[in-house]
TrEMBL record, chains A, B:
Gene: malR_1
InterPro entries: HTH_LacI, Lambda_DNA-bd_dom_sf, Peripla_BP_I, SBP_2_dom
Pfam families registered for this protein in UniProt: LacI (PF00356), Peripla_BP_4 (PF13407)
Annotated protein name in UniProt: HTH-type transcriptional regulator MalR
PROSITE patterns: HTH_LACI_2
Source organism: Blautia luti
Residues spanning the membrane: none
Organism placement in taxonomy: Bacteria, Bacillati, Bacillota, Clostridia, Lachnospirales
Length: 347, 347
DNA sequence: CTGAAAGCGCTTACAG
DNA sequence: CTGAAAGCGCTTACAG
């Protein structure tokens, strides 16, 4: 197959160690010799064999830490699957991945977890951050003082020295929903926006994207809300019922977050299934069923798996090959699904 | 890190070769000994290190052949990128991939390419087949007589001994389009279907899926056509103009294949941009632009990359690890995109 | 600055 | 049926 380091060594009349030093800029080599070896390697079309490399490097194994918040949510459980896939792959390549799960969101716990990771001597950290000053300061300290690169995922903290972010572009997600709702309603009528928490930045980005784009492209649509249901079905139901009372001729509902079942119960109760157009988010819980039953017209989702997988692999590629990520923000695909594009073998 | 074969050998008081024979059922070992070793390995939680395995196996390298048809089309060029990714990965794991490109579709050339692959002693073939008797017979002969597994991709030939198929479910794709068109038109009006070739099975599946689902779920919609434009813009334009003449109050167009620009010219000519709802296929050519310009409302697409990547990897996993694919038909995701979910950095 | 050697975890002829 | 040894392609102390 490929050219090996041994062949180059023979062609150059030096030892394999010398070739290694030349090709990987390890110093301790006469510059002219290094130059000559590199030229020979180029000419012979040398491509390092990752296998040999990895096997040899597995002696000083690369350890990567992962810190998960909100680990109890269905979304994070999906993300965790992606992390585990990455673990398997990193393991195969001779590295190690340490995962620390935190239930709910908690700055204190995050900082403690980071400290723990440092004690374990991880060489990089992938984490779900929190938009709090002390967390951000800690991230910067890890990067600058300890030289431990940090990749954020799912939520971002832009004003830090984190290497990059992997996750959804919330504003764009809201715009996509606006495009769908616009077409579903023929660009006119009344559409309610129901969100989860006003304090959650990724949810409010969706609301902003939605409202802005509706205003821009479908000025014939009047927006009701946003109202907040705290991702609870009971609350979502009450809100929806309330809206129906105020606005009996409602044409559509955009739901940024959980509470689907409550909303659908209210729709069913009002006898408006299929008639009130609904766009919701995420491929979790009973959402596919609700789509099949005709309550939800479109689901917008993100690839949770890749939000776990990619951050770990980005760090591994950095630490193993010195490959830096291409961009500071790696936005995941925004999937649009209708009842015909539900993946096989899913709930 | 993990438990190694050497540790098991020490624990069992045998040589590493013996452990290998026990764990990989290579025979030439006393059954009791094999059993004992397997028990010990289990207990110690042994997981074979793929790296060591691959590096060692790279001596008798695994060669995989790929046969591409219609290599000149934009779609196949995307597929080819996936193939090249797989090549790189297989290469890294000590294997080799041979790619044979055929312009257009041609049974004779396919059979010749298969023969060539056999001469090259490939251990598996991934190919775009052709629904012709002699091609199918040849596939069966390769599988049964030569014991060379065959994976089909992009198009399938069900009644053969091929290991599995990777590609789109055309009928489902048509149904997804029907769901979109139904919502775009409010479930009523007149919708034209324009396809590429009546002889192309994957295109006719789309037509069938579309028409059946419209009839079932949106009985208020009347279907015009299908007409065939041979994927030519000129022809597509004429057809569309013809339809406008016959059906001035047309509400939508479903285009199963290329000819988008021709159709859009006709729409523009009639001053009906945005008004006639359009659903088209594939993320190629000017399709994203046409969507941004408001001609196309939804694009349905397939992940071309994975249709090249996966078949090669399926064969590699089979030949390298003895892992068989999970299903005989591996359907790729059906993506729905609107103007807000166009991936970054794409034309 | 350079080389010889050992080692990463596995597989595979070769002896016996 | 079993073991000792060589080898896959690379990296890395250790000498010099």
């Amino acid at each position: 197959m490929g050219v090996t380091i041994r062949q180059i060594a023979e062609a150059a009349g030096v030892s394999r160690g010398t070739v290694d030093r030349a090709l990987n800029n390890r110093g301790r080599i006469r510059p002219e010799v290094a130059e000559r070896i590199r030229a020979i390697a180029d000419e012979m079309g040398y491509k390092p064999n990752q296998l040999g490399r990895a096997l040899s490097m597995s002696r000083n194994n690369i350890k990567i830490g992962v810190i998960l918040q909100g680990a109890e949510t269905p979304f994070m459980k999906e993300v965790l699957k992606g992390i585990q896939e990455a673990c398997a792959e990193v393991d195969n390549l001779g590295g190690t991945v340490l995962v620390h799960k935190i239930e709910h969101q908690n700055a204190e716990d995050v900082i403690l977890a980071m400290e723990k990771m440092r004690m374990e001597e991880v060489r990089g950290i992938a984490m779900v951050p929190l938009d709090e000053e002390r967390v951000k300061r800690e991230i910067d300290r890890f990067v600058e003082e300890f030289r431990i690169p940090v990749v954020t995922f799912t939520s971002d903290v832009e004003d830090t020295k984190r290497l990059c972010f992997v996750g959804q572009n919330g504003v764009q997600c809201g715009r996509a929903a606006a495009g769908l709702m616009g077409e579903l309603t023929g660009g006119k009528g009344k559409v309610a926006v129901i969100s989860g928490y006003s304090t959650n930045t990724s949810l409010s980005s969706r609301v902003v994207g939605f409202c802005e784009e509706i205003a821009r492209k479908y000025p014939g649509i009047e927006i009701i809300g946003p109202e907040y249901c705290f991702e609870e079905n009971g609350r979502a139901r009450e809100i929806t019922e309330g809206i129906f009372k105020e606005v009996p001729d409602l044409d559509g509902i955009y739901l940024t977050s959980h509470g689907e079942e409550g909303v659908c119960e209210a729709i069913a109760g009002a006898g408006k299934a299929g008639q009130v157009k609904m766009v919701a988010n995420d491929f979790m819980g009973r959402n596919y069923e609700l789509m099949r039953e005709g309550f939800i017209h479109f689901l917008i989702g993100q690839d949770a798996r890749i939000q776990g997988y990619e951050p770990v692999m980005i760090l591994f590629r950095l630490l193993f090959n010195g490959e830096a990520p291409e961009r500071a923000k790696i936005f995941t695909e925004i999937y649009i699904r209708n009842e015909y594009t539900i993946p096989e073998g899913r709930h």
